[in-house]
């Protein structure tokens, strides 16, 4: 019986040491990723807007946190971020878009969410007159 008890105590000690080392390693990774994410966030975005009626494309540069009016839309980017990977870069941005012609006061935004450069269909901007695509974050 004594050998079994001794082995259980050694196993508990090894697990505790392993757990402490695991916490230390994950905390050091999270600190370095926080430093990287600050570096990867941008202050400006560029978006392409297609007017479906006139078939004209426009490129808008907007500062993060500022609202910009484009015809009947107001567009406000809240955040943009570039990925850490160089082999397949990903640009994401959080946008809020209002349609000024919409008289329905219950619907504040026609779009409020993340948009992705490489996959605009994941969370598409759905509007009868305009299409919006993320072009850049810097």
Structure, explained:
The model is unreliable at 30-39 (pLDDT under 50). Helices cover 28% and strands 38% of the residues. The relative contact order is 0.16. It is an alpha+beta fold and 138 residues long. Strands 3-4-5-6 form a 4-stranded antiparallel β-sheet, with no helix packed on it. A 3-stranded antiparallel β-sheet has the order 2-1-7, with no helix packed on it. It folds into 2 domains: 1-40; 42-137, no CATH class. The chain contains 1 helix and 7 strands.
Compute the separation of the termini in Å: 66 Å
Q: Strand portion, in percent?
A: 35-45%
For the CA atoms, what is the radius of gyration? 24 Å
Number-wise, the strands total 7
What is the string of helix and strand elements?
Answer: HEEEEEEE
In short:
The protein is α+β, with helices and mostly antiparallel strands and 138 residues long. It has one helix and seven strands. The chain folds into two domains: 40 residues; 96 residues, no CATH class.
How do the helices and strands line up, and which of them pair or pack?
Layout: H1 2-40, E1 44-51, E2 56-63, E3 68-70, E4 73-82, E5 91-99, E6 111-116, E7 130-137
Antiparallel strand pairs: 1-2, 1-7, 3-4, 4-5, 5-6
List keywords for this structure.
single chain, 138 residues, alpha+beta, 2 domains, four-stranded antiparallel sheet, 7 strands, elongated
